[in-house]
Amino acid sequence: MNRGTEGRVLLVGEGNFSLSASLVADNILSGAQMVTSCLSSQVSVQEAHENAQESIEYLAKSGATVLFEVDARELHNHEVIRFFEFSRVIFNFPLADRHNIKKNRALLSDFFSSVVHILDPHKGQVMVTLCKGQGGTPADQPLRSWHNSWQIVSMAANAGFILREICPFSQEQFGGYKSVGFRFQDKGFNTNSSLTHIFERAKVVTVDDIGAKERCYFSQGHQQFVVPSYIRDKLDRWSLLEQPHHPMATLHKYLSRNLQMLCMVSILQKDSDKLPKVLEGYRSSLSSIDPGAVEEVRMHGCLHDEDVMSKTLERIVSDKSKSSKDMKNMQNLVFANLSGLEDSCADTAQCAFSNPVVTEEDEGHAEVKSEDVTRRVFTHGVSQDTVNGKPASLQNPVGNFHEHSTDVTATKLKALSSSVFVVWKAANSQTSLTSVGCEKDTASESPVVLQGAQIQSPDDTLFHLRCSLLENLPHIAALAESNNKSCRTFLVTGSVFNKCAISSLSLPVSHEMLFISFTSDLRVDDLINHYRATLKDFVKEDIVTVQQEECQVGVCNKGFLSDFLILQTSETSTVLGHVFKYQHFQNPGSLKGKEQELKLLQTSLQGVGMLLYLEQIVLAATKMPDVRLLWSEDHRFLNQFHEPSDIVTMNNFKPFSLYPVRFVHDVSFWENPERIFDETDFFDIIRDAAGDIVTSVALLDKFNNLETGKTSRCYRLVFQAHDQALSYITSWKLQCRIRLEIAQKLGVELR
């Protein structure tokens, strides 16, 4: 309050005008820029307050405008005030009723709703000073219960304001100021521990009307894909890696420069056609494989003798000493590498990803005949009949998606989820959108299968958004092979997409940096030592490496990763990335007869690599409370990083919206007895309905009704905006929208 400012300043709710006179006398404000007002008439002020007339005359002589009978709730309708635009509005110790907190909240809410019309929308500030404990923020000491406070942050949010700063108010700062109004008399009151709350305008969270939305597209090359609306919203935004001064872009530049100091690197264009975001199949091409199965291929994969290869396959399949799980892993590793290799390897930009996992229809089959190998291709867990050279119609693999999944890589690597975002090609015929992430073709009678937000037309090929840059390793290896003896070390950065729980630490869209070297000069220890020092300087914590339990991850039908090491911080155990070894297989070439049916992949390239999670590094370095802030469009976010500085000394993040209110709503429902409830679908629907405003979803209760056989669930949803103004009524409307969406899309019965 004792800071100077340009532009006009309005004071409302003045009692004896001593504060206004003090601001002018202390040269904090000039009389010419001040408009000061009170609720009472001039006669009432002169009669009620001693020395009030003296202050009024002083202000008039200094050029200030003094107004009477001004209601703080109707500023925008005042005959004089409504014609001005103010850079600052000051309301000192507002009071509507000494004993009724609700009336005081209403006064604040109405004041903010009025002042928004007369305030400079870009640089304007509103300053409200309250007595000890009234505000309801953690800055109040002692802190009252929320329901026993004036809830000033929430009242301001109703009009689109966020709390920018809180300053202690001291009466001694203003020499001529004298508080009045105790019991509405000319008596002072206790101003000790009073706080001045400074507000600024921000983007307001609004609720779109529930109904038809435009179809959401994503283009890759000449093909368009239909994607969930939440993903489309993120893709529509600027690239965080290219936004000037953005911490993600700064980190990316820093790490890239640092890697080039280590060795000669070929930097691939981010998200180029050579490294597609959209990949074939409705599953990730990454899955855990049995190391024993890999050894079998290593031992016998180089043999071209037909009888030896047949016997090898037969021995692997019929080895009764292996466990059932081991047998399945080995069988499918061989199957994935025996069929459809020529087509999949012909064009590295359109690699057919085969997932070495067992589908449900293979459960219980202990024997697999070698002739079955030629007619079955396992692509992302989808079994296709290729007898006639054409894939048979898919039998709703999406409906059993999670039942098919045997992928345990989610426990090995942070980003490798067994649940991916399914997309499908946009039809040329006219279509109408029936719900978020769901469309119906009005020109075709082909059925559409719905599993949450996942759609599949039986006649179309399913695709998925890549869940990790590791899925692009075969494309990169193909580039390395084509480079011959030229640069065989690559660096690529791009966005990845993972279905995940709703929390403050992760979003479905994130960014990774992948470094992979196929040279013999670079070792795993070199990478570890180099980046220990690099990341330590950045996050200001020691970086430790953790040896993972033995695991190997297959990448398509072209290779596998092994020897994973975690890079994590020593204090918070935040996982920043992984170091690994990669073994890539090459196409054995054109073979004739049964050799073509039994061809095996031979080891071609070996490399070491590192995968870094950029969001997690930035969060660890800046102490940012929520990953959603990285997507903020508020100029106050980037302003913190505008000052040129060495990245090693990047400052901790300072919240520009203090104490954003958390609104809590619960939702209860009976599960749909005709389908398995999937929490990932539940989370996706919440995101489509409310964006990133829901910051936490927790299961409170689950029980089974023995009489009806129904299962009930109760979830607690937390609504919060770190960079926008979120009101209670908006959170309630979003909650209602979420309830309707989950009832419609999941078929649950609301309680």
TrEMBL record:
Domain of life: Eukaryota
UniProt cross-references to SUPFAM superfamilies, sorted A to Z: Anticodon-binding domain of PheRS (SSF54991)
Domain FDX-ACB: 652-751
Catalytic reaction equation(s): tRNA(Phe) + L-phenylalanine + ATP = L-phenylalanyl-tRNA(Phe) + AMP + diphosphate + H(+)
GO molecular function: ATP binding; phenylalanine-tRNA ligase activity; rRNA (uridine-N3-)-methyltransferase activity
Major localization listed first in the record, in broad terms: mitochondrion
Gene3D superfamilies membership: Bira Bifunctional Protein, Domain 2, Ferrodoxin-fold anticodon-binding domain
SMART domains in the cross-refs: FDX-ACB
Cell compartments where the protein resides: Mitochondrion matrix
Entry EC number(s): 6.1.1.20
Keyword terms: Aminoacyl-tRNA synthetase, ATP-binding, Ligase, Mitochondrion, Nucleotide-binding, Protein biosynthesis, Transit peptide
Enzyme class: ligase
GO biological processes: rRNA base methylation; translation
Family, as annotated: Belongs to the class-II aminoacyl-tRNA synthetase family.
Protein name, UniProt field: phenylalanine--tRNA ligase
Organism from which the protein derives: Pomacea canaliculata
